[in-house]
Amino acid sequence: MSNKKSPIAQRVANLDASGIRKVFDLAATMKDPINLSIGQPDFDVPDPIKEAAIEAIRRGQNKYTQTQGIPELREAIADELRKEFGWTEVPPILVTSGVSGALMLAFFVLVDPGDEVIILDPYFVMYVHQVRLAGGIPVIIDTYPDFRPPLDKIEAAITPRTKLLVVNSPCNPSGAIYTAEELQSIAEIARRHNLLVISDEIYNLFCYDAPFRSLAEFYENTILMRGFSKSYAMTGWRMAYVTGPKDVMDKMTTLQQYSFVCAPSMAQVAGPIALKTDMSPQVAAYKCKRDMVYEALRDTFGLVKPAGAFYAFVPAPKGLSATEFVTRAIQNNVLVIPGSVFSERDSHFRISYATTDEKLAQGLEILNKLANSL
Ligand SMILES: Cc1ncc(COP(=O)(O)O)c(C=O)c1O
Questions:
Q1: Residue 1: per-residue pLDDT
Q2: How close is the Cα of 8 to the center of ligand 1, in Å?
Q3: Could you tell me the pTM of the whole model?
Q4: Are residues 179 and 167 part of one domain?
Q5: CB 345 within 8 A of CB 356
Q6: Which band of pLDDT confidence, cut at 50, 70 and 90, is reported for residue 22?
Q7: Are 317 and 374 in contact (CB under 8 A)?
Q8: Residue of the nearest CA to atom 13 in ligand 1?
Q9: Do 35 and 118 fall into the same domain?
Q10: pLDDT tens digits, 314-361
């Protein structure tokens, strides 16, 4: 046996992707699966956005940009924020390599070893891993069964080590959207305890029942993150932006200079065109898909109606863990993800309805048959 020490650093030694890998290993055995697992839109980037990026490449805009992003894009973003929030002065804007990049920068800039970060369960899994990588302690608060923000539990979890709260509305994976009253209450808690709040608003365009409301309307110490990945199907282009308190943004900008450097130049050039693109037809189509999912699964599974994003977080039938039910779904050619990937619980599974109506209808029928046969 070799007594060679592992070259892997302690900080990543326990990083583990086995939960999701198991699902994808199983999926690799499927023939023409009905794939309801994908976390990205099934529509393509609208043509004018593509053309703008192609033209940028042809013109030679292929070089490093300013770390904080090109001025035309930051101005277009600032215009949007001024219109939406009525701000006369917009805080500094940093264009990042996806919201993933913005999160990484924020956690590394804000979290000292031993600092606590409150995360609401179910959660986007990256939060937990990135907080740990920064040496922080994720403090996980359960929001089952209706996925509303549990205000009392949040306040009770705050300690002198609490540094940050992460809010994600519309939420991946639950599809929950927080109301203005809930956001106002979160703002009051954060203000009482002098907490910074990361508001991950990557799904802000995908709101089906009421206009989107942002925590930034209610709370000055919000680190607001929005992306181009979901709104314009630009997942591979790696672009997002973040805005917030100046001292935090300054340090995030410096850290970006020493890490990601800048978001892709051609994506940045296309950014202002994206912001002007009307995505309401795509959003309307996703609302219909949301309705299809809810109508199909509410009685069999007791699904809480998702209000946004493009996910439904569905309780597994009684007597089965989510992993057990997902294994059976996969054996029946439907690929969904067990909630244990997004949660301390293994009681729900996530459906992404970002697929064709035909595939979605087929998948829903199989899931229903499977639940009824138990
Ligand atoms: C809630 C949430 N935040 C952030 C991201 C990261 O998106 P990107 O890095 O593509 O901007 C995702 C992607 O799935 C997400 O679901």
A1: 56
A2: 27
A3: 0.97
A4: yes
A5: no
A6: confident
A7: yes
A8: 39
A9: no
A10: 999 999 999 999 999 999 999 999 999 999 999 999 999 999 999 999
Predicted confidence (pLDDT) per residue in 28-51, tens digit? 888 889 999 989 999 999 999 999
Within a domain: residue 344?
Answer: yes
Q: Examine the domain organization and report whether 102 and 226 are in the same domain.
A: yes
With tokens 């989510």, the residue in question is 322
Say whether pLDDT at 19 is over 80.
no
Output the CA 6–ligand 1 centroid distance in Å: 31
Q: Which residues contact 340 (CB under 8 A, 6 or more apart)?
A: 19, 322, 323, 346
Is there a contact between 158 and 195 (Cβ–Cβ < 8 Å)? yes
Q: Residue 229: inside a domain, yes or no?
A: yes
> Domain boundary residue among 251, 276, 301?
276
Ligand 1 atom closest to Cα of 124?
1
Helix (H, G, I), strand (E, B) or coil at 164: strand
- What is the percent of the chain with per-residue pLDDT over 70, rounded to a whole number? 99
Do residues 33 and 134 share a domain?
no
Q: Which pLDDT score is estimated for 340?
A: 94
Residue 26: what pLDDT? 78
In a domain? residue 6 = no
Domain that holds residue 169: 47-276
- Note whether residue 96 is domain-resident: yes
Query: Does residue 298 sit in helix, strand or coil?
Result: helix
The Cα 172–Cα 174 span in angstroms is 5
Q: How high does pLDDT run on average in the chain?
A: 96
Domain count, the chain: 2
The CA 39 to ligand 1 mean position distance, Å, reads 8
* Ligand 1 site residues, Cβ closer than 6 angstroms: 39, 98-100, 124, 168, 172, 200, 202, 227, 229, 235, 240
Distance 2 CA to ligand 1 centre (A): 40
**Are 81 and 205 found together in one domain?**
yes
Q: How far is the CA of 238 from the centre of ligand 1 (A)?
A: 10
326 vs 307: CA distance, rounded Å: 23
Ligand 1, atom 7, lies closest to the CA of 99
Verify that 136 and 63 share a domain, yes or no. Answer: yes
- 26/89 same-domain check: no
Quote the pLDDT of residue 77. Answer: 98
Q: What are the distances in angstroms from CA 164 to CA 117, 131, 240, 334?
A: 5, 10, 21, 38
CATH number at residue 304: 3.90.1150.10
Region 138-162 average pLDDT: 98
